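Think of the structure tokens as a kind of shorthand, similar to the way a musician reads notation: each symbol stands for something richer, in this case the local conformation of the backbone. In the example below we present two proteins back to back. Begin with the first one, reading the sequence and then the tokens, and try to describe in your own words what changes along the chain.
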Amino acid sequence: MSAQLRGTAYHEAGHAVATWTLGVKLGTVTIDRDGDALGSATHGRILTRRDIDAFQFGSLDRFTGEANALRQSIIALAGIVAQRRYAPRSVRRWHGRGDRETFNLIADRVVGDDELERKHWYARALRRTERIINDRWPAVESLAHALLKKHTLLGSEALAVIYSVYELPEAEQRRLEKLFKDKG
């Protein structure tokens, strides 16, 4: 198994765990290559058209939009943060290029051209991301190991792996086990 594949597993697991932590619906997580992407972690929509309009027109909904933009930014940064924690030397300049593009698009909407404000936005998002990845590291590791075995996990399968790390009420554990068996 290549070092690149292991790094990709941790990268995608980081995205997935951050998505779950922030209460966003988790979709498929994979370490199978797709074009230029070495893997992907899909999730439900976070930023709405209303959020984007709030930034453009300065409406009162801007605070809700900004909170959603921060959630999207954290998820975008979580892959590279997890990969760097796993193996700092595995990170290359081109890793997470799409994630950086996502972050920059969001930052453009939230702070515009103000470079100082952009630095503050990045620092805030990075601190929150590092805290999430550090606090949830056992889940990142478990999910990365599951991805290395199976390569692609449905959202329900990824959630079952994440939940297996934490103590859950018995009824919830049975429900997840049944869901996992039905999918496998």
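Once you have a description of the first chain, move to the second and do the same.
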Amino acid sequence: MEYKQSSTEYDLMKNSIALAAAAAVSLVCAQPLMAQTQTATTPAAGGGFGHHAMHAGFSHFGMLLKSANLTTAQQEQVRQILEANKAQAKSLFQQLRAVREQIATKLLATSVTAADLAPLQQRLTHIQQLVDQDMIDKALAIRNILTPDQVAHLAQVHQQLQGLHAQLQNLMGPGSDEMAEPSN
């Protein structure tokens, strides 16, 4: 006896596939938005890093840097470091957004394979590496203007923050880290 699928089952299956595709697209598109909004208001050195600190990891560095009690001269140096290559960093984020949108479009296509997405994934990885390198270069440049006492203080604050993070994980239970922090 042959099973014939009802139109209701077909509609349910079609809606489930559409929902799964929409969820995948939202995950791809939400990550850059989270990275930008998370860091756009990062305070540093008595002020805000603003648009300059769009890197998700850099926001943590900015919060940590705020505790360094920078001098006015150091604050100005930090501002100059963050202003350098601003247009290039903005371009990289626009490229990330465009590639993620292309991935989202392909995921919503009638059919898509890993081979269809491979070139886009490679491009995304390359751009992300450039963004990460820019972040590291800026962090090193900022670290180089700090005094040894400020670096030691930041190391102590960082260690305290790690302890607080561990306490939070213990309170929230296993798997809480994966839910709170988006992966790259």
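Compare your description with these statements about the second chain. The chain has a mean pLDDT of 74.
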